[in-house]
Write a structure and sequence with these properties.
There is one protein chain. By secondary structure, this protein is α/β, with parallel strands linked by helices. The chain has 3 domains: 6-176, no CATH class; 184-200 and 245-409, no CATH class; 203-240, no CATH class. It has 12 helices and 14 strands. It has helices at 6-19, 24-44, 49-79, 184-191, 224-230, 259-270, 292-301, 313-317, 338-350, 372-377, 381-387, 389-400, and strands at 88-90, 94-102, 110-118, 122-129, 132-139, 143-156, 162-176, 209-212, 234-237, 249-252, 279-282, 327-332, 353-360, 405-409. A 5-stranded parallel β-sheet has the order 11-10-12-13-14. Strands 1-7-6-3 form a 4-stranded mixed β-sheet. Strand 12 (327-332), helix 9 (338-350) and strand 13 (353-360) form a beta-alpha-beta unit. Helix 6 (259-270) packs antiparallel against helix 7 (292-301) and helix 11 (381-387) crosses helix 12 (389-400). It is elongated and about 130 Å long.
Length: 416
Amino acid sequence: MRVRSKGSMKRFFGRVRRVFPLRAGAFVLLAAAGALVFLFAPKEADFLLYPAGLVALLLVAVCAVLTTAGTLVLRRAVKRLEPTVPERLETTHEIATGFRFPSLSRWLVLDVTLAWVEPAGLVVSLVPIDGLLSEVVTAKERGRYTRLVRRFTVGDVFGLTQLSFDVTWTVALSIAPVSAKQGAQLAAGRSQGETLANPAGRVEGDLVEMRRYAYGDSMRHILWKVYARSRKLLVRMPERALAPGPVSVAFFVAGPEDEASAGAARLYVEAGLLGADLVFSADGSSSPARSARDAVEQLVDSASKRAHGAEALDAAASQIDPGRLTSCVLFVPPVDGAWRERVVGFVKKHGLDASVIIGVDEAGEQQTKTSRLESFLFLPEEQLDAARPELKKLRAALEADGLPVKVLHRTTGQLS
């Protein structure tokens, strides 16, 4: 004998519930009305409760018939419609998809609701327009999908009956993480050339400095005119860069609750905070992105790699010029996991001058008193720690491994 699993039983009863119109309230009303009509009223000869019971029975029957008929009419109408969904959505933003269908408002007692089954995690609201219902969606998580499943639910306003049906469309749908807000601190750092700068100050630039000739120096760099006057061998050398340049290599590590970190990464690549000569790689990408547009596409695809965060860092690094891979920025999730050990091992293996950025959405309650200027420029660390105690532990663990950490609040742009 085959035994159904708990999950399959749940799906089975879910399908039965969608095709069986009566709800729990209808059964209670039917039981009470049946008792009045067939048990209590005949014995007591009560001419008030008897018609009340009949009206209750009739109400349930009428609601069941109207709900069934309305569902059939709506299903037939929806089957003819196009999916009408934008190719690109953004998380946390309300977007009118343009999808409209009959509201059944002329049926008086019927109400229609809509939900997305696939992709899941979207909030759907309906706006009545000219006898139709217009769809407005708000996505919570990024991702890329090839199928859209909408679930339509028809029920009466009394909550006695309800029927649902699913309609599937083949679409190309992309949900991108909304970019973090660029706060005053980031803007100021960028204008002063201090945004995630590489403090190494490697020798690079024009050949404007000089020193005595040493064995192995190129003959092309010898100052022959100086030698003719002073009989001293001097060679030209590049000037040492005193103003550090911005780090242009960045990696995104997927993981639990990483939407805010994805938004932070999008801000940095689109606002040019990582430099014009960008090299960006997100988990799941086959090759590094060299433009902001490609980087955002990689962020979208990385949603499917949350369980394998940082596993492909070495593969991504092998496709980058070793001369450029001296420093990098790592965007990581705010929840600790196996990815942290992989990130630390990657940084130590390649000897990188790396910094870490963590994106968060909530800020928690204000814990310390700060001036208006301080509140405007940055979010106090204690305020972030109060919102997420686990974030404080994660930050301490990363800093203990020698990785400087910054926390970016996505909705305000404040940096801590």
